[in-house]
Amino acid sequence: MLGPLGLAFKDAQPVYKLLQDQGLIARIKEDMYFSTKSLGDLKTRVKDFFATTPEMGPQEFRELTQLSRKFLIPLMEYLDKEKVTIRVGEKRRLRAG
After folding, report:
1. What dihedral do alpha carbons 41, 14, 5, 25 form, nearest 10°?
2. Predicted TM-score of the model (pTM)
3. With left for phi above 0 and alpha for psi between -120 and 50, is residue 66 left, alpha or beta?
4. Cα(20)–Cα(22) distance, rounded to whole angstroms?
5. What is the pLDDT of residues 4-55, one digit of tens each?
6. Domains of the chain and CATH, by start
7. How far apart are CA 91 and CA 82, in angstroms?
């Protein structure tokens, strides 16, 4: 969302790095960052989902988050990397432990 500021990503990269070093944002993929608070809230919502359902696919994740595919897949991969979920085929399951 740098367009309204008239900045290119490379110009704002030092700010992203500073915020990441301070633990305020997390890098999801090369040019995608989210606040750590939002990611914490997302992890809680995903764990709550698994309290009643054994598997989550992209459609269920979309319904839970109301996000587009642009954000959906990177966030699902982030949850795998963070060991919240584990991918089994096209579905995710809550990782034990």
Report:
1. 0
2. 0.87
3. left
4. 5
5. 777 777 888 888 999 999 999 999 998 899 999 999 999 999 999 999 999 9
6. 7-94 (1.10.10.10)
7. 16
Give 85-93's long-range contacts (Cβ < 8 A, gap of 24+): 85/46, 85/56, 88/55, 90/57, 90/58, 91/55, 91/56, 91/57, 92/55, 92/56, 92/57, 92/61, 93/50, 93/54, 93/55, 93/56
Q: What is the pLDDT of residue 10?
A: 81
Q: Is 91 helix (H, G, I), strand (E, B) or coil?
A: strand
Per DSSP, 2 falls in state: -
